[in-house]
Design a protein that fits this description.
single chain; mainly alpha; Helix Hairpins; 2 domains; three-stranded antiparallel sheet; 3 strands; elongated
Length: 247
């Protein structure tokens, strides 16, 4: 009798810690949390009834055994169907419309650059200088080059602006014969959680899948081999790596 009473007291505690561990590990949504609580409550009630002697142990063991037997028998078929399932899943994912409006932000001393995930388009607002508060898209190539002289003392601003000009005016170097005056080669900016979230365009508490998805989406548009820049690729990689270390 005492043992059954102790088990009845321990079961809710175990269920609570299981739910908390799963919720924190996988960052479940509110709907997923409700489903998780419902399943846990159902198992808790069944476990309590078994401990009290109201249900036989076979009530759980029999379905588990039947499911295990079914899985063992169907395993060869499931393995053969797995490649077909992956193909179907990839086709559904490619046919699904991309999320609209998702963007990333990179802020420097002179610029606030916005990167659109869906299209890979870039634009930015000038934060200080002669062209302050103007959009980069409203400036001519000569004005952009003049701006590059203004922000040449700030490495991050110079690199972000160079990436924008490379994207919008691919042959500008050949036509102008000009180069950016960089303030050294090292990127001295320190990565923080807030900065990494802005760069990848994520919510405040992203999970692993969201981080990887945003990273791949950006790299598909901004990789150096696809018209991006080494600087932006480095920033995106650093943001992804930093957020993954926090999980």
């Amino acid at each position: 009798m005492i043992l059954r009473l102790l088990l009845l007291l321990v079961l809710p505690v175990i269920a609570y810690y299981v739910v908390m561990a799963v919720t924190q590990r996988f960052k479940l949504t509110s709907r997923q949390n409700r489903i998780m609580l419902f399943i846990t409550a159902a198992f808790l009630v069944i476990g309590a009834l078994i401990v009290m002697g109201r249900l036989p142990v076979q009530f759980i063991l029999a379905p588990i055994g039947a499911a295990a037997t079914f899985m063992l028998r169907m395993l060869p078929t499931l393995l053969r169907l797995l490649p077909m399932w992956q193909i179907l899943k990839s086709r559904v994912a490619s046919a699904r419309p991309r999320e609209s409006g998702q963007s990333s932000t990179i802020r420097t001393k002179f610029l606030e650059m916005e990167l659109q995930h869906g299209s890979g388009d870039m634009d930015g607002k000038i934060l200080q200088g002669i062209q302050a508060q103007k959009k980069l898209s409203t400036l001519s190539l000569n004005q952009l080059l003049d701006l590059s002289e203004e922000c040449s003392g700030d490495h991050d601003s110079s690199q972000v602006l160079e990436a924008y000009i490379d994207r919008m005016h691919p042959n500008w170097r050949e036509h102008t014969g000009k180069k950016f005056g960089k303030s050294g080669n090292a990127d001295e900016s320190v990565m923080t959680k807030e900065l990494a979230i802005e760069i990848l365009g994520l919510d405040a508490a992203p999970n692993r899948n969201q981080i990887i998805k945003a990273y791949r989406s950006l790299m598909q548009k901004l990789h150096p081999d696809r018209g991006g820049s080494d600087y932006l690729a480095k920033k995106i990689n650093a943001a992804k790596d930093f957020l993954l270390t926090l999980l």
